[in-house]
């Protein structure tokens, strides 16, 4: 039985095996963890679904393999001592006659497309042909991983001229990168479809500028590489515009303090919840999207998808990058439920233990840098979402009172990033005004 690299999310094209829990020759039982994989967002243990003996490990720890690639082979118990099939095929058949002329090697067969889902374990499966995340077949029977195809399209690299080095003759990302370094930019064709993304100067061109300056090279891990690609794509393909408003949070702070003081406690004196300002902001943002439903939407190329419920992504900084776990149906949840769920998701995000359904999707997102003292900033929209709210630090500021006097108030700046294809200026302003109202009159988002 072939053990395949599983699919961990819609946009994941490859995974890195960080460790093997079994060695070649070990007996395997159903449910035994075979290896741990790491993608740009999560790490997860992959169990076996069959019994037998681990006959071969094809992708060692520390190496990257595309989704659907064979990473190991499990043989039944009776075949444990048999040599691998590839080794048997490579041995010449015994014969007393004179050796026959060497046969021409058969061309490598392209990976067959499964007619039905191939079960890998209770959590993963290779999808049906209509949703094939494996390597695409190219001319000559070769294939390329999704990431390699994307890098080739962005860099104008002809895959037919790329030498493969991946499993089973596949073209992987490093092959495209090597071809990009070898082919001058002027000789590359433009991207075949979509918007061509600017590649910028090569690594060698950048290093040449600093040949006399000491520096340390830090290779990109999977997360940093994906973040870089998506941010360039977002800024080059999404027509951003920004709206900023100052919001008074005095009543919000009072509501938070009263709620925390009234939180029920267990026998050990531990409170059932402890609200943060961010929890209240999540609730207010969901309420605002419900108030202006035309903005509760995402861009889908030839159409706009509008949603009934508000699934809010919240950016969490983790080692090497960030991830935005999603609070589902935030408009329907109590503040205590949002608070406890956000704490749990953030903790598992930092441990890279989120599942794809916990960070994918979402109709909008929030990024809060106020805890770092950042007064104001503009966030980059995460496609296909059409909005993202950037929250700055609270500050004390002199404001004019209704009777013409002057008083000090707690104020924070929020900046709404909008995709102009989905959200017009007036619609974005209406959404920001609704959010401002819920923050300044917080009791209205609780009724």
Short description:
With 447 residues, the chain is α+β, with helices and mostly antiparallel strands. It has nine helices and 23 strands. The strands form seven sheets. A six-stranded mixed β-sheet has the order 14-23-22-21-17-20, with helices on one face.
Please tell me about this protein's structure.
This protein has helices spanning 85-90, 146-155, 173-182, 203-209, 222-237, 250-262, 277-291, 335-350, 425-440; strands at residues 2-4, 14-20, 27-28, 33-38, 43-47, 52-57, 64-66, 70-75, 118-119, 125-126, 136-137, 143-144, 170-171, 240-248, 297-299, 304-306, 312-314, 316-318, 321-323, 326-327, 364-368, 387-400, 406-419. The protein is an alpha+beta fold. It folds into 3 domains: 2-81 and 114-131, RNA polymerase II/Efflux pump adaptor protein, barrel-sandwich hybrid domain (OB fold (Dihydrolipoamide Acetyltransferase, E2P), Beta Barrel); 142-229, Dihydrolipoamide Transferase; 238-445, Chloramphenicol acetyltransferase-like domain (Chloramphenicol Acetyltransferase, 2-Layer Sandwich). The strands form 7 sheets. Strands 14-23-22-21-17-20 form a 6-stranded mixed sheet, with helices on one face. It has a 4-stranded antiparallel sheet with strand order 1-8-6-3, with no helix packed on it. It has a 4-stranded antiparallel sheet with strand order 5-4-2-7, with no helix packed on it. The radius of gyration is 27 Å and the shape is globular. The relative contact order is 0.10.
């Amino acid at each position: 039985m072939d053990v395949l690299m599983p699919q961990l999310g819609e946009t994941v094209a490859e995974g890195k095996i960080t460790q093997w829990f079994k060695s070649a020759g070990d007996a395997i039982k159903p449910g035994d963890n075979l290896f741990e994989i790491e993608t740009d967002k999560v790490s997860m243990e992959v169990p076996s679904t069959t019994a037998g003996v681990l006959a071969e490990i094809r992708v060692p720890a520390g190496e990257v393999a595309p989704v659907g690639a064979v990473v190991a082979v499990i043989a039944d118990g009776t075949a444990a001592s048999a040599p691998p099939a590839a080794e048997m095929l490579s041995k010449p058949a015994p014969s007393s006659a004179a050796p026959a002329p060497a046969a021409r090697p058969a061309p490598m067969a392209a990976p067959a497309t499964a007619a039905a889902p191939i079960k890998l374990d209770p959590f993963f499966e290779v999808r049906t042909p209509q949703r094939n995340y494996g390597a695409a077949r190219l001319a000559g029977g070769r294939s390329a991983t999704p990431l390699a195809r994307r890098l080739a399209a962005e860099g104008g690299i002809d895959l037919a001229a790329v030498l493969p080095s991946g499993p089973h003759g596949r073209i992987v990302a490093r092959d495209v990168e090597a071809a990009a370094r070898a082919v001058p930019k002027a000789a590359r064709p433009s991207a075949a479809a979509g918007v061509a993304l600017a590649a910028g100067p090569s690594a060698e061109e950048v290093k040449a500028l600093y040949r006399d300056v000491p520096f340390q090279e830090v290779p990109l891990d999977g997360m940093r590489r994906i973040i870089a690609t998506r941010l360039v794509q977002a800024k080059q393909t999404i027509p951003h515009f920004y709206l900023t408003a100052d919001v008074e949070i005095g009543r919000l702070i009072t509501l938070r303090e009263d709620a925390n003081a009234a939180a029920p406690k267990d026998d050990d004196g531990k409170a059932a919840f402890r609200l943060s300002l961010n929890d209240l902001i999540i609730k207010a943002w969901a309420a605002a999207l419900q108030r202006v439903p035309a903005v509760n939407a995402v861009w889908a190329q030839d159409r706009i998808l509008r949603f009934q419920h508000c699934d809010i992504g919240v950016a969490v900084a983790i080692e090497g990058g960030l991830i935005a776990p999603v609070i589902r149906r935030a408009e329907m949840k109590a503040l205590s439920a949002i608070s406890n769920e956000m704490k749990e998701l953030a903790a598992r995000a930092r441990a890279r233990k989120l599942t794809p359904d916990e960070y994918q999707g979402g109709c909008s997102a929030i990024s809060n840098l106020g805890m770092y003292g950042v007064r104001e900033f503009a966030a980059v929209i995460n496609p296909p979402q059409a909005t993202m709210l950037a929250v700055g630090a609270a500050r004390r500021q002199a404001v004019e009172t209704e009777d013409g006097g002057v008083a000090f108030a707690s104020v924070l700046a929020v900046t709404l990033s909008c995709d102009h294809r989905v959200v017009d200026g007036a619609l974005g302003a209406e959404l920001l005004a609704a959010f401002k109202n819920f923050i300044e009159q917080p009791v209205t988002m609780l009724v």
